[in-house]
Design brief:
2 domains, CBS-domain, 12 helices, 3-stranded mixed β-sheet
């Protein structure tokens, strides 16, 4: 755990957007590169990134969808008004989709008010990074790594940090003694469920209202069926009408198409007695951002997020 922030992002090809780039451009770039966020950067020289202004995150896009999707809009041909995507005719839905796509990215950076910009110097040590990510009163999902001139050189995420230190952690007894069912769930991503037959737009609205980035999708008997996350909004990139499908059908349609290099994030779960190391192994293997904890009937009883893990590690390592 002796590496610096600069070494952890070494060789990274930083994808970013300009403040005046459109939401549609940011959305497409996220989908193409399998990203959940992009830095909003003022170019320095040519195409090189300069000073970072903030991040635009898929959770910001969900929050912005909640705003645009519930604005009162009138049909441009004078045929009435609609207060939600659910009651839109074709013309209003097209107008709503256009308003969503043509907004500048700088306007929706931290639109959800949950992902403020955090910057760290390139020379920060791995241990200090763990302490930084694990601050008990904050939910830090990524940081901008900057040089001494405050120019962006890379983006370090929770998952990148945990992958880098994973080998060292498995040797620590304190870490091995932690169980998934006993972790102190401090993340904003508390467990919430929605039925599989809920309209997808309503599920994203629930996600926004609850301040979450994911929801467990359950069957009629309460058994966990799937996971829908803010990342799944990418499935509506080419067709807003998909938001009117049930969650079950929305996920079936959108995950049938490979967006970028990978499919959208799916369901991963474990039992209460699994150790934190086993949980981290599973998360590293599947590259998901959360893992549901289930009981003997496969009913969800909790969710372990990367933030929960970072908080737990900070308490052990500090």
């Amino acid at each position: 755990m002796n590496k610096t922030a600069r070494e952890l992002v070494s060789g990274q090809q930083v994808e970013w957007v300009r403040p005046d780039d459109l939401v549609d451009q940011a959305f497409q770039k996220m989908a193409k590169h399998d990203l959940t966020a992009l830095p909003v950067v003022e170019p320095s020289t040519g195409t090189a990134p300069g000073a970072i202004k903030g991040f635009v995150d898929v959770v910001d896009l969900v929050a912005f969808l909640a705003n645009v999707g519930t604005r009162i809009m009138t049909n441009p041909y004078g045929a009435g008004e609609s207060r939600s995507i659910a009651t839109d005719d074709v013309a209003i839905l097209h107008r709503r989709s256009k308003e969503f796509r043509i907004t500048n990215t700088v306007e929706i950076s931290d639109y959800c008010k949950r992902n403020p910009l955090h910057k760290v110097n390139q020379n920060m040590s791995t241990k200090d990074l763990i302490n930084f990510f694990g601050k008990s009163n904050e939910y830090i999902h990524r940081v901008a790594v900057v040089d001494d001139n405050h120019n962006l050189i890379g983006v370090l995420t929770q998952s990148m940090l945990l992958r880098c230190i994973h080998g060292d952690l498995s040797q620590m007894r304190e870490i091995n003694d932690l169980k998934a069912g006993s972790l102190r769930m401090t993340e904003v991503n508390k467990l919430a469920t929605v039925p599989a037959d809920m309209v997808a737009f309503d599920a994203f609205m629930t996600m926004h209202k609850e301040g979450l980035s994911s929801l467990a999708v359950v069957s009629g008997n309460g058994e966990i069926f799937e996971n829908i996350s803010a990342t799944d909004l990418k499935g509506a990139l080419t067709d807003f009408k998909r938001l009117l499908l049930s969650v079950r059908d929305y996920l079936a349609v959108t995950r049938a198409v490979v967006i970028g290099k990978k499919r959208a994030e799916g369901l991963v779960y474990c039992e209460r007695e699994k150790s934190l190391v086993e949980v981290m192994n599973r998360i590293n293997e599947t590259r998901v951002h959360r893992l549901y904890v289930v009981d003997e009937q496969r009913k969800p009883v909790g969710v372990v997020s990367l933030t929960d893990i970072c908080h737990s590690l900070q308490r052990v390592i500090a």
